[in-house]
Amino acid sequence: MPAAAPRRPSAVRRPSGRVAAAAVCLVLGIGLIGGAAAGSWLTEDSDTHPSPQAAFAKGRDVWHSTPVDTLFPRTLHGLGLGPGGADRTWTRVAVAPAGGCTEAFGPRLAKELSAAGCLRVLRATYVDATHSSLITVGALVTKGDAAAMLNLNSRFSTKDLANRKDLMPLPYAAKGTPAADFGSGQRASWTVRVLTDIPVVVFAVSGFADGRTVTDPQPAEAAARPGTTTAPGESGLGHDAKNVADLVQTAFRKAAGSPTQTSQEAP
What we know:
Layout: H1 17-48, H2 52-59, H3 62-65, H4 68-71, E1 75-78, E2 88-95, H5 101-104, H6 107-113, E3 120-128, E4 133-141, H7 146-158, E5 187-194, E6 200-208, E7 218-219, H8 220-223, H9 231-234, H10 237-256
Parallel strand pairs: 5-7
Antiparallel strand pairs: 1-2, 2-3, 3-4, 4-6, 5-6
Region (Disordered): 214-243
């Protein structure tokens, strides 16, 4: 018998149309998933870090778009924020209805702040853990644009308006609460900050919870300095006004999504 002819290697098979289509779909699917993920990352980053202009605009809306418990938490914790680095805790005892400038500011302070316009004023009053001090903290949401806030900040800084005793904010003395007797005569320390990254002026005023009259109130920044021997300083009322204002200020900035951690506040 003649020898059988050697068999040729079989040709490489081409993928069927169905297999090719599946491969294309797989590639497209991976691309779509990757694109969606990238879009999600971009959206998340944009939401977390809005532009300064967007944060400024949103800052004007937080008073009605953010829960009151977010802006003025029921309990504020100040780890190491008391005199000598002591821990402090403040409990909210009252929230004032959103109102105008006349309820929160005397005529002189209202006039100084009027340059930026008054959209709404929000306030809450807190008591410390020992029930020895009261603190009213608030936020004036202005109508002004970024330039107006910069100008107002500059005016408060250059003229030292935030430290003038005749420009102290008014306390919120809610009836039926420990703050019922927290009047103008009980004010011991205060702070006023004109923010520039959002259209908000944050303020706070503190006093003794026993209703005693204070004859020589002192600005919070000065009263909170180490070694201060004044009544507001030694009692911690300077720390109370300063630190409660700090915490609420941070809450408003966070609600607005402001990327600015610090700004040129007055003082």
